[in-house]
Design goal:
Elements lengths: L4 E6 L6 H9 L3 E5 L16 E5 L16
Parallel strand pairs: 1-2, 1-3
Length: 70
C-alpha cells in the first residue's frame, strides 16, 4: 500500500515546516508549496490524500484555484 501523501500550503517560507516534520514522523509524505503553485484542477490534486493550508488566507489563491470555480 502506498504511503499517504499530503499537500501543505504556506504563505511564508518555513510556516509549514513543523507540520511537515510531524507528518513525516508518521511515515506520511508531505509536499510543501506556496498557493501560487496550486493546480487549478481538482483532478490534478488526485495524488494527494489531503490538502492542509497553514496560515494561508483565501485571498492568496486566484479565483481559478478556489473551490467551486474550476
Amino acid at each position: 500500500k502506498p504511503r499517504p501523501r499530503v499537500l501543505l500550503l504556506q504563505e511564508r517560507e518555513g510556516e509549514a515546516d513543523a507540520v511537515a516534520a510531524a507528518l513525516r514522523q508518521w511515515q506520511i509524505d508531505a509536499d510543501v508549496f506556496f498557493p501560487v503553485s496550486v493546480p487549478t484542477s481538482a483532478s490534478q490534486l488526485g495524488d494527494y490524500d489531503a490538502v492542509v493550508m497553514v496560515n494561508t488566507a483565501a485571498t492568496s489563491f486566484t479565483l481559478d484555484q478556489q473551490p467551486g470555480r474550476a
